[in-house]
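Build the 3D complex.
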Amino acid sequence: MSVVLAESLNAWWPEAILSVGALAVLLLGAWTRRDRPSLVAAWLTLGAGAAALWMAPVPPAAGTFFGLILCDPFSLAFRWLALGTLAIVLLLASASRELAASVRGECYGLLLLLGVGLMLMAEANHLLMAYLAMELVSLSSYVLVGFLRERRSAEAALKYLLFGALSSGVMLFGMSLLFGLTEALAFPDLQAAVAGAGGPMARALLVAVALMLAGLAFKISMVPFHMWTPDAYEGAPAAVTALLSVGPKAAGLALFLRLLEALAPLWPALAPLLLALTVVTMTLGNLVALVQTNVKRLLAYSTIGQVGYLLIGLAVHTRVGHEALLVSLVAYGFMNLGAFACVVAVMNGTGSEALEAFRGLSRRAPGLALACAVFLLSLAGIPPLLGFIGKFLLFGSALEAGAVALAAAAAVNSVIALYYYTNIIRLMYFAPPAQAAPLSPSPALRLALGSCAAATLALGLWPGPLMELVSRLAVVRLL
Amino acid sequence: MMPVRLVLLLSHALFALGVYGVLTRRHAIGLLLSIELILNAAALNFVLFSRAFGHVEAQAFALFIIALAACEAVVGLAIVIGLARHAQTVFADEVELLKG
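Done.
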């Protein structure tokens, strides 16, 4: 075996373990039709993957697998983020009562496969790899969205599939044009080829890049490719929604960041577009969230709003912005997964996903209501929670880059968002419950809620270690 | 000598036809077929450019597109069958429980 291949495989053990394990879990689930064996196998796979990632050697700088993927410190952060998200989502999926026991095994397998796709998206250093990773994520999520045996779920899966397949097709066409214009597929070659383009060539490049970014914008639900988000989130099982709202957003932003680095010479032309879409994304998400009555739909629009904030870190295009983006992604992961854990707990207890189901929750389940309030306040960006640190850094990076209008728009949006987040808290604490029976989450849910709440609180009060870690990751070059 | 311009025209026409189909079709299978046209337009571009540049990697890209288009069709048809079972319809405009 050649040296390159041996070194590549060494750096790639976590993904290899996860993919083989995921297929085994899938087969086990389909074969036994019971969830216990596949759940154990899924946890073992996840544990082995995490151990392999912990021990993974620092790969050669030139990139592994002949430059197809790049296992640098930047992607290492996103690989850990993907594994952490997977762990919490596995807890949610195993505790959720929506899924029939006979199909759960397959669900765990698909969740793990989706996780591999997320890791690959953050590592991709080549257009082919980026496309394959995004398709792996998309194909598993189409199936996962349609996992419930009811009409709503099937409809959501169809809508998601049609939007997703169309946007990935458009992205692919953009990639083929980009290849035709630059004769380059690997990101570093792309950067070299794009540099110094002018006149008609630059305009043609912009068309190709715009088509290509459509696919990415779909994955991170950026306006105008956000339409699928509320429908897919509402129809999908709550645990899957939790994963969709965190995993692909983080991995998509990582890929977006790397692609923008590869297209850096085109940045002056792309910046105004990205800036405008950032403002529109956050405003639309937050405004439409105001009128929602279904909690999953509300969180879907809140996700669009949060993606808008995260995009600030991308749009300002400075090192401070990238650091802020990483910190906020960690914050967003913990608080949004926590919020979905609350949704799963309430759905398990009441069978309803309407906002009304949260009425009087503080009397039925004081601990759950408190945790839920922590996540919602953190999403709204109230100090001293982790969400505040993320937002503070993002808005600060906008001010530092001189984008005062952007920071002002984000601040106005935070005020709008405060209304619908506190509305849920009002329902939980100040409205009488429909039923008086106490509601007690299962141990797996308590673990998920507890770990997310602890991270949101502790990292919010002592952000030092997280910031230090991120500032070390953000100095490395992305290509 | 390959007529690069002609093939480019063909691939762009395929792409436009696909987008037109997605916008006008009602039947879910029709929509999937239109998306397939878009994917094939991209694959055609890759093959064309890789011949023009003498670039092998892009030929592999076209192969991957063919394989993934098949995967997408499998998942898509499975979802359409699921929908037909639960909702007794395969028309995208009759899908209405979820309102944006």
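Chain A touches chain B at residues 127-128, 131-132, 135, 139, 142-143, 146, 149-159, 161-162, 165-166, 169-170, 172-173, 175-177, 179-180, 183, 185, 227, 230-231, 234-235 (CB under 8 Å).
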